[in-house]
């Protein structure tokens, strides 16, 4: 168990060294502070983008788009390939910054950078595979086809919890698709954003691509609002809370822009009587307590068959009591800090409400290291037994709280599973093939990510990532999510020399 923490001075030096190796000079400014959740203290004062900076970024990325869109896609892929190489070279420095700013444990911080490298590889391949279909025309001597063209400037609004990977999912794919990008990261993670922006800048220099294919704008929500409202931004890809999405979606729609929303999750796993419990316990602990419960895909509800509930709960509480909580740079730590004391207040408020709504806390919930770091928020992940899905269970609390419910029939489990407003990720643990297939079927989970015998979090980049209902409906990353970053045109070419109207219409 970690009882000591690095000093803020150590963390500042570590961040500065990594940034310098990447080529970033920390921009000194009075507007806001880079901070670390490890001690909860400030690292550097930074300058925020002004309205003039935002305007300049819009003009520059729009102008760059006009050349980038007609750069052959495989040439565009070369920029993304170079970015991937630089990410590999600086993997350790970038992971340090993720740990310093987001508090992720080493292995997860390295995993986040790996996710960036992976999406670059994917997008390089994609740059030669932006396929359109040829369609059988109903008319003789006609060719009917679908063509995909670049869309325009993409505004990326990202959250603190995947401060770099979510940017890379959007940016690597958007650049390969011929778009240019303006990035407004979370104000909680400016340093990793500066590092990613600098590496992309270096990549552009190395392959002779226009620098203005990408602009970073640090700052508060006013910057994001400008991207949301400006008609020069063709697509707004926003990751964050459902509350944020409720504002972004209608505002972008009001100007007929496109939005791609990745909002809250309230992910559940069903554990059936036939489940391999060793596998289930390991998977559940990672999915529920990993990343200190701060993934969109974090497991928040467990729906367990009544016959195995006592055994599973007993094994989970035993595992929770042993979780090493503390300094995320310590290789033995599994649970780092929450992002802020505000997040801790939100968690404690949810626990108070859960108790008032009949929940019983079975494990965890105590704050740790409050003496060593009063401004930080270390907390024991919590398991709460509930009899029904009360209000608080149906909400996403961005903290490590796992609500446990029981079921008797699979139909009941699926009904409980789907009876929340969100629809991101889901799992079933079972060795019964019929149950697994039913869960994956149209009558099963209503989520965008549906798994068997693996937890809800930690998706690979090759599949499309996103969810339904209040999660927002967007798809990013792999599979055919690239289509959201392009516009399609349907082409009818008449090579017959005669006019033939569709639907057999005759005229003249
Ligand atoms: C997020 O939490 O915003 O599937 C993204 C996962 C990660 C991405 C999570 N690959 O958990």
Automatic annotation (TrEMBL):
Primary enzyme class: oxidoreductase
Keywords: NAD, Oxidoreductase
Domain Aldehyde dehydrogenase intervals: 31-488
Keyword Hydrolase: no
Domain of life (superkingdom): Bacteria
Keyword Oxidoreductase: yes
Signal peptide as annotated in the record: none
Positions of the catalytic residues: 262
Pfam family, one: Aldedh
Subunit note: Homotetramer.
Name of this protein: aldehyde dehydrogenase (NAD(+))
Organism: Streptomyces halobius
């Amino acid at each position: 168990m970690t009882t000591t923490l690095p000093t803020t001075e150590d963390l500042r030096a570590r961040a500065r060294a990594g940034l310098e190796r990447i080529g970033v000079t920390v921009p000194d400014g009075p507007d806001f502070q880079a901070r670390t959740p490890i001690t909860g203290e400030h690292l550097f004062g930074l300058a925020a983008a002004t309205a003039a900076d935002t305007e300049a970024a819009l003009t520059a990325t729009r102008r760059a788009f006009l050349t980038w869109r007609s750069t052959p896609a495989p040439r565009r892929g070369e920029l993304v390939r170079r970015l991937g190489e630089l990410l590999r070279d600086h993997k350790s420095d970038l992971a340090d910054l993720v740990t310093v700013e987001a508090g992720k444990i080493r292995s997860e911080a390295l995993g986040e950078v790996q996710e960036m490298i992976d999406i670059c590889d994917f997008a390089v391949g994609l740059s030669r595979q932006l396929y359109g279909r040829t369609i059988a025309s109903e008319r003789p001597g006609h060719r009917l086809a679908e063509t995909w063209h670049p869309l325009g400037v993409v505004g990326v609004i990202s959250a603190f919890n995947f401060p770099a990977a979510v940017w890379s999912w959007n940016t690597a794919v958007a650049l390969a698709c011929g778009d240019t990008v303006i990035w407004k990261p979370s104000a909680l993670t400016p340093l990793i954003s500066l590092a990613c922006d600098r590496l992309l800048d270096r990549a552009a220099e190395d392959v002779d691509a226009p620098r203005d294919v990408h602009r970073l704008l640090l700052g508060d929500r006013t910057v994001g609002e400008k991207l949301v409202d400006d008609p020069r931004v063709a697509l707004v890809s926003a990751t964050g809370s459902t509350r944020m999405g409720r504002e972004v979606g209608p505002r972008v729609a009001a100007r007929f822009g496109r939005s791609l929303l990745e909002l809250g999750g309230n992910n559940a796993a069903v554990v059936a009587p036939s489940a391999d419990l060793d596998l289930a316990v390991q998977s559940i602990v990672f999915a529920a307590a990993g990343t200190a419960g701060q993934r969109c895909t974090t497991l928040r509800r467990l729906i367990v068959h009544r016959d195995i509930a006592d055994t599973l709960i007993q094994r989970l509480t035993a595992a929770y009591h042993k979780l090493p909580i503390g300094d995320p740079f310590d290789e033995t730590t599994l649970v780092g800090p929450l992002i802020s004391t505000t997040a801790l207040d939100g968690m404690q408020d949810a626990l108070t409400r859960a108790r008032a709504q009949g929940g019983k806390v079975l494990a965890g919930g105590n704050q740790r290291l409050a003496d060593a770091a009063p401004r930080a928020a270390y907390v024991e992940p919590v398991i709460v037994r509930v009899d029904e899905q009360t209000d608080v269970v149906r909400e996403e609390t961005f903290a490590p709280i796992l609500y446990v419910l029981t079921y008797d029939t699979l139909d009941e489990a699926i009904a409980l599973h789907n009876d929340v407003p969100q629809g991101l990720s889901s799992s079933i643990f079972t060795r019964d093939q019929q149950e697994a297939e039913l869960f994956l079927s149209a009558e099963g989970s209503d989520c965008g990510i549906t798994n068997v015998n693996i937890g809800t979090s930690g998706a690979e980049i090759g599949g499309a990532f996103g969810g339904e209902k209040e999660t927002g409906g967007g798809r990013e990353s792999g599979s055919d999510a690239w289509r959201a970053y392009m516009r399609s045109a349907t082409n009818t070419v008449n090579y017959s020399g005669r006019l033939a109207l569709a639907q057999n219409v005759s005229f003249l």
